[in-house]
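Predict the 3D structure for this chain.
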Amino acid sequence: MTSDLGDLRSPPSAPPVPLAARAIDVVREYGDTGNRVRALDGLSLDLPARRFTAIMGASGSGKSTLLHCLAGLDQPTSGRILLGDTDLGRLDDAALTAARRDRVGFVFQDGNLLPHLTAGENIDLGASLARRRPERGWRAELVERLGISDRLRHLPAQLSGGQRQRVAVARALLGRPDLIVADEPTGALDSESGSSLLALLRACVDEYGQTVVMVTHDPVAAAVTDEVVLLRDGRAAGSLSSPTRGRVLEHVAALAAGAGVPA
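Done. Predicted structure below.
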């Protein structure tokens, strides 16, 4: 007698999406007793690997503080930050420095390049500090893809804003980090350079399998990402998958008005 159980079984569930980073009940306070400012107020957030996530909210909502905590540049007053399975709060200073250097790539608004180093030296900075040689093939691919092969001997002052940001992206990607954090990376760029940089960050995810989390005020920039996370007063106030410029504007307007975030 044959069994029909095979027809009744549930389909196999999809494997869980790995997380590049997590914030768990994170509180971050600044200031002296009696004059404390709570930048993050019990915030929890999961950042799936190989995704492009935007963090948005009004000034003072905790966006940059969250980014700095995720990157190990700042430590929560309470709560936990996980980079993969690593609890950053449990690391000593040397291990935390190594985690920032080897597992996190940084792209800031001004590029944050060292002015006395050439573009090539800035790209290699993390490897130099770790006393290891960059992977030559990967480095060559990056500088060619980013269009800066002929700028490697130039100092940052000799580069345009867009070129400086391309150098910063190459530096961020060189060590194949677990997480790339970008704080208003298009804020100082013209529209053409900004669009080019966003396309590069998008390619980091789609072609190189990186994880990018970006703080931005720009709905056009947010529309390039996979998901927008909205913050208000240091707390998560909603999220938006597959964002478009119009939907981002609608959600940000509702957030600013203190209304519920649209579904």
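The chain has a mean pLDDT of 89.
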